[in-house]
């Protein structure tokens, strides 16, 4: 076990982490970047350094843009440690991690948490059957290994990533049976007040328009406004059923990809005991920070999608701002406002379209809160929606109590996947807002580790 000290520890090597490290190195800080993956890029730029050119072409220009950021990071002089599982972070900047079966400790004068996002759970009947995957997981397989479905696939849900993967699959020659689009008609009305911001972010709006146009021209079948989704099959996926314009439909498929947006991966910030609030627009928990991403008066910062969903470019901006602020606190930067101003302006441009997207692609209630009692919510401990409701009837007030009632949230993921669903089920049963119900208390080890790793 080692115990070393550096100016800045960055956890995560996605856009926010890479940009933060580059900025800090430009200011002369010593920087160590820890990441669970063996190579830099995070989920958005996964395998960007070694992806073959044909795969980069399929994934598109936004993915290819990550290469410049990765190259800048490699030449920055930052110390990158891949394959590192961070299992503990303290408010004093102590970070415990395991790499190559050995436990290590490093202390940063400041620490930036840039752990990114995760796909929102899509708990409907049959969602745990073999043959069901998240769209994000399917895209990771494409980015990291070039893996593509060999049979026609059904994509279901809503949000930019759903359409982006469909577009990438088309370019790769994958047959798409249909896109079952769950975007609600009300979403278009709720998005209207934010249309000015979307137009000001014309670049992103135009990208989305071109992407959807390409899908329509390709002949892909859309079922817009679909509801009452259920995955068919007993032991494996056989298809997807849903209601479209009042008519019941079913599609045969051996692979169904579900998606209804992403949410912050906030396990690390939650584990520090920092205050988090319910974001009613994005329907998730987010850490309470100052404008630089700092958690209270601690030495910890949060940047990128783990602070609130903003996308790749804005994540990089937040990473730079967090690094600038940390450097200012350490006395390296004396003109923080002047240095930060252009980055703050850029961040404003990169986030203009976000309220429009949040309103338009707000996941429907029935796709977040299972109506059927037999739908699994906690997959690790096999706890159903009906059991959670039963706990509430017995007096359960919040997610932490569900652990005592029935081990919900006590499996290997420690509530990372089921936490939002459990919170919303309890809130609905109690007739209160999710913010009143609270979230799972997250404690180290944040990720599963072996006892042997601690003594190795």
From TrEMBL:
It comes from the Bacteria. Keywords: Oxidoreductase. Residues 7-319 form the FAD/NAD(P)-binding domain. InterPro entries: BFD-like_2Fe2S-bd_dom, BFD-like_2Fe2S-bd_dom_sf, FAD/NAD-bd_sf, FAD/NAD-binding_dom, Metab_Enz_Cyan_OpOx_G3PDH, Opine_Oxase_asu/HCN_bsu. This is NAD(P)/FAD-dependent oxidoreductase. The keyword DNA-binding does not apply. Residues 376-427 form the BFD-like [2Fe-2S]-binding domain.
């Amino acid at each position: 076990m080692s115990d070393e000290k550096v100016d800045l520890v960055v956890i995560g090597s996605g856009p926010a982490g890479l940009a933060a490290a580059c900025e800090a190195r430009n200011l002369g800080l010593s920087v160590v970047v820890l990441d669970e993956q063996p190579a830099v890029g995070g989920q958005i730029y996964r395998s960007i350094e070694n992806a073959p050119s044909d795969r980069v072409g399929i994934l598109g220009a936004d993915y290819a843009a990550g290469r410049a950021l990765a190259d800048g990071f490699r030449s920055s002089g930052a110390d990158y440690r891949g394959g590192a599982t961070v299992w503990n972070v303290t408010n004093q900047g102590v970070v415990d991690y395991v790499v190559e079966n050995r436990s290590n400790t490093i202390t940063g004068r400041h620490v930036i948490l840039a752990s990114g996002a995760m796909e929102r759970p899509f708990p409907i009947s049959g969602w745990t059957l073999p043959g069901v995957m998240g769209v994000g997981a399917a895209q990771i397989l494409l980015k990291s290994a070039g893996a593509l479905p060999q049979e026609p696939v059904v994509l279901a849900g809503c949000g930019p990533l759903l359409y982006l993967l469909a577009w990438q699959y088309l370019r790769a020659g994958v047959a798409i049976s249909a896109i079952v689009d769950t975007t609600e008609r009300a979403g278009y009305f709720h998005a209207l007040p934010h249309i000015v911001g979307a137009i000001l972010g014309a670049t992103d709006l135009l990208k989305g328009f071109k992407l959807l146009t390409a899908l329509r021209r390709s002949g892909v079948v859309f079922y817009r406004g679909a509801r009452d989704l259920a995955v068919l099959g007993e032991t494996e996926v056989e298809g997807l059923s849903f209601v479209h314009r009042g008519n019941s439909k079913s599609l045969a498929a051996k692979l169904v990809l579900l998606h209804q947006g992403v949410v912050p991966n906030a396990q690390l910030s939650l584990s520090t005991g920092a205050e988090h609030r319910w974001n009613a627009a994005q329907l998730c928990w987010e850490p309470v920070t100052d404008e630089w991403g700092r958690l209270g008066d601690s030495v910890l910062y949060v940047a990128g999608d783990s602070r609130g969903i903003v996308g790749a470019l804005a994540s990089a901006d937040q990473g730079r701002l967090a690094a600038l602020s940390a450097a200012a606190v350490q006395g390296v930067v004396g003109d923080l406002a002047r240095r930060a101003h252009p980055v703050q302006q850029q961040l404003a441009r990169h986030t203009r379209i976000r309220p429009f997207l949040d309103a338009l692609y707000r996941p429907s209630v029935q796709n977040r809160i299972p109506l059927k009692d037999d739908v699994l919510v906690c997959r690790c401990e096999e706890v159903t929606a009906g059991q959670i409701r039963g706990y509430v009837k017995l007096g359960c007030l919040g997610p932490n109590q569900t652990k005592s009632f029935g081990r919900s949230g006590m499996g290997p993921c420690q509530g990372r996947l089921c936490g939002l669903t459990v919170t919303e089920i309890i809130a609905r049963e109690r007739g209160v807002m999710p913010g009143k119900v609270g979230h799972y208390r997250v404690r180290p080890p944040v990720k599963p580790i072996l006892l042997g790793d601690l003594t190795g």
